[in-house]
Each structure stands twice: as structure tokens, then as C-alpha cells.
Design brief:
Elements (H helix, E strand, L loop, with lengths): L1 H12 L3 H30 L4 H29 L1 H21 L3 H28 L6 H31 L4 H17 L2 H5 L5 H4 L7 H8 L1 H24 L3 H9 L3 H29 L1 H21 L3 H17 L1 H9 L7 H66 L1
Length: about 425
Amino acid sequence: MGVFFQEWSTQFKTYNQNIKLAIWANIFSQIGMGMFMVIYNIYIQELGLSHEVNGQVIALTSLATAIILVPAGIMSDKLGRKRVMVFGVLLSGMILFLRSIVEMQTLLLITGFATGIFTAFLQVSSIPWLAENSKPKQRVHLFSLHSAIMTAANVIGSLLGGFLTDFFHLFTTELSAIRFTLIIGSIFYILAFFPIAKMVENRKEKLPKNKKIPFREFIRANKSGFKVIILFAVAQLLIGFGSGLVIPYLNLYFADRFLASNSIIGLIISLGQAATAVAMFIGPLVVRKVGEVRAVVYLQLASLPFLLLTAYTESLLLASIGFLFRQALMNAGNPIQSSLMMSKVNDSVKGLANSINQMVFQLGWAFMGPVSTAIVLKYGTYWGYANVFTITAGLYLIGSLYFLIVFRSLQSTDEE
């Protein structure tokens, strides 16, 4: 255990100030988003609106992110990561504040769409920023640590979201309590501006002026690299379809199936994120044993039994345990995938590569959000959620096997 901590401590000391500031920025933004994620669906229900509205808001948010990710990635490559992140954080914070106070269904949909647009600017620039400020040998550890810290910050946000809402409810109505919590979440998100403002970007070194059209240049100069981006995109689309059926509605699942309180829901989701953070540290160890591709696949496949346990159990305790392990195992491979992708593309198009990868994932959420709510409404609370979780397990299985077949052969070709 001492060797384990020493390894991570040694790694962290090698990171420059830009990386540490980026981590702080993501801590603040993830606390804010964690508070929103755990409570916002319930806010919509508290306004007296239906499950369909929740589905529409989630679909519009994801669709907006999918639409803007590639343009945001190109902007990040051409204008600089820091400028794009500052723009995204300030506007996202303001939009989140508006979402905390508006009640009209139309405004809920508009602000949900705007959230998807502006949060993408931070989202699309973070991984390329870390890649450009690190060495290849640092990246598996760095991306795992970054993801773990982000997840831990999300845990804090989820816990705050649940407990603050119940605390405020002691003094005011449920609706007002939720609204106060959401406003605090938006303030946390805006705090990310301050570490970003302190970052120092050397664009002359990282983003040469002669790189005018990264997308066309990349196709001409590195067709095999473009192939890698497309292959990653297909894998992410399959996982995104499965994720979009389940993940946006986990708070409603625990509320509807088990009548859990806001505090209990916040605690469960927070524990799931905490388990994910711990699993992130295990990722590099698995990579050393079996390689990057197999590590991703093994972690994803190991999550499936726990997903099905969550789907069919009638016990809140077992559902929570299944959720914790599914969450940890399924997400532990994400930083490994990011490291693998960043290692295969040029600096001038890292933002574009990352944006395409995230875009297709968001498309999965956009398309499957309304499908999920329709299935639950058609089959009822128990069988509706059970069917949704089962479909997700099937899509995860297909996505994992595809990743293994495609990238194992690609990795073998690279080694040759």
C-alpha cells in the first residue's frame, strides 16, 4: 500500500502548475454540476411537470452538447484552450443560475439547451489541455488522477445537493429548498473561473499559426489517425446509447422504485461516485497487467452483473450495492480510453478528436432519454426500469466486445 501511495505522490509532483490549476477548475465545476445532477430532475417534478419534460430537458441538453462539441473543439484548437474554457465557465455559470429560478416549461427547455452548449467548452478543452501540459508516460496516471478528483468533487456536490435540500426544507417549502441548493451549485460552478484565469498558455509552441484548418490537415497528414477517431466514435456511440437510457434517471429510479428521500438519493449517488474515484486509481495497475485495450474491456464487462442486479432487485440495499459497483467498474476505463486516444493524434487536433468522441456519446443521451421515459411509462415502475437497465446491459456488452475486437487488432498492427 505504501508503494502504491508513493507511486501516485511521485507522479503528482511531476505535474506543472497548469495541470494543477486545471484540476482545481474541474473540482469547482464538478461540485456545482454534482449538486445539479442529484436534484434538478426532482426540481422539475416539484414544479408539477411530468416525466416527459425531464426526458425532453435531458435530451435537449445532450443534443446541444453534441451539436456544439465539434465546433467547440475546433475553436479550442484555433483560439486556445484557456480562452475557450473561460468563455464556457462564465456563461455556463450564468445559465445554471437561470435554471435555478425559472419555472415555465419553455424556459426550462431553453436553459437546458443552453447548458449543453456552454458546458461543452470546458468539457472539450480539459483533456487536450492536460495532454499538452504532460508527457506521454505521465498520461495514464494523470488522466486517472484527474478523473478520480473530478469524480470525488462530484461526490461532494451530490452530497451537498441532497443534504442541503433537506436542511433548507426544515425552514421553507420543498420547492424553495431545491431552488436554494441549485443557486449554490451555480455559484460553485462560476468559481472555476479563477484557477482558469491563472493558467498560462504557450500557444506559439502548442498551436502553430500555420495550422489553419486542423480537420483537413489531419486527414491529409494522418489518415490512420483519423481512422482511430472514427473507431473510437463508434465505440462511444454504443456506450452512449446504453448510458442515456439509465444514467440521467438514476435519482428518479431510487425515488420511484424505493421512495428514497433526497438525502438518501444524494448519499447513494455520492457513494457511487466515490467508488468510481477509487476505481480510477486501480486503472493504471490493470493497464500494467493486461494493456490499455483489455483493461478497458475487462472493467466494462465486470460491471454488467451489477447493472442487472440493480435492475431486478426489490431491495434498496442491493440496488445501491449494484449501482456502486457498476458505476465504479464502468467508469474506471474512461481515463484509459482518453490516454489511448490522445496518444494517437497530433496536438493541433486534440480538441477536435476529444470533441468528436464526446459528441457521439452525447448523441446517445439525446436519442435515448425520451426512449427511457417512454418505456418506464409504458411498463410501470418495476418492469419499466428493469427493461431499461437490461437494454443498457446489452448495449454495453456489444460496445465492449466491439472495442476489444477493433482496438486489439489495431494495437497489434501498431506494434508490428
